[in-house]
């Protein structure tokens, strides 16, 4: 899904898909983010410049962009970005009047939420499978296509199902299994739609939350994709049903249990004030009894990244030996671990309770999923 440099459309608006294609093709361009600093700190397009111009532009003060007029390269297109596409349209008009070839990102960062790119996961030499990381760069969600022989399994699909179908087809794979690591709270799972579209079996960790049809997996259960085996490792903590998938003893899809420098939060959709503490203790045991005991060279493939990943093809994954070193909180004793986890819980993701209900099959999804999901993921504790 790459190729020659993409054309930037003429006029003053560019769609998220057109911008994604341009970045994928390494088209030279300049992205200018005009949101307030606090909004940009939440999530931004990799490589973008920032000018906190929101208030002054709406006050009619165009001089806020004067430094850009003097410094931006004029030999490449400019794309302006804001939250929903209105302030960026003002900025685009100002820069157009200054002689730039400029477009505003239609729908802003809310629409960019669905943008994606890919990277091949680097596996130990003994690996028989190939694994493609699909990164929802506008949201930080990471999913995986595990290909072996002519079959594939998809773990935690978070972008349009058509993306996985096309990527698998390019590689000669038929998707036969779709798996989620847990009931997500920051985005609507695409697992049901993907499994339906390709006739694959949908697997979820065994639990009593989800009311939609699926095949339940217990601890130690296996799923085959070609000659590759995915083994379920029950790892309660982030949620009660959280499960990691060990792939041929060379990689582990760790969901929101273990990230590259931190661990999952234990409080989302908690039943009461005491539940997060109990889940934090369960997370400690899951890490030490299951995931952290795997081989040093097993590649940890987390369910999220902490920042937007560039279109560089570099996988966001690391050998377990490195992750053990970098996840400082995991070296603590259990009581200290629980205290540290509870002290580092960030604000809850927007609309997370509604997202959970939709993923459980207890509420219908709205037509505009990306607006519901807009905003950075906050499924990890602070590192």
DSSP strand count: 18
Count of helical stretches: 13
Counting copies of identical and different chains, the oligomeric state is single chain
> For the record, what CATH class of the largest domain applies?
Alpha Beta
How many structural domains in the coordinates? 2
Spatial order of the strands forming the largest sheet: 6-7-8-9-10-11-12
Q: Which structural class should the secondary elements be placed in? A: alpha/beta
Q: Describe the sheet with the most strands.
A: 7 strands, mixed
Keyword list:
383 residues, alpha/beta, Oxidized Rhodanese, domain 1, Metallo-beta-lactamase, Chain A, 2 domains, 7-stranded mixed beta sheet, 6-stranded mixed beta sheet, 13 helices, 18 strands, disordered N terminus
Which helices and strands, and how do they pair?
Elements (H helix, E strand, L loop, with lengths): L12 E2 L1 H9 L5 E4 L3 H6 L6 E2 L3 H5 L7 H6 L6 E4 L5 H11 L4 E4 L2 H5 L4 E4 L9 E7 L4 E8 L2 E5 L5 H10 L3 E6 L11 H8 L2 E5 L9 E3 L4 E4 L2 E7 L8 E5 L3 E5 L19 H15 L9 E4 L15 E2 H7 L7 H10 L8 H8 L9 H5 L10
Parallel strand pairs: 1-5, 2-3, 2-4, 4-5, 9-10, 10-11, 11-12, 16-17
Antiparallel strand pairs: 6-7, 7-8, 8-9, 13-14, 14-15, 15-16, 17-18
Helix pairs in contact: 7-8, 9-11
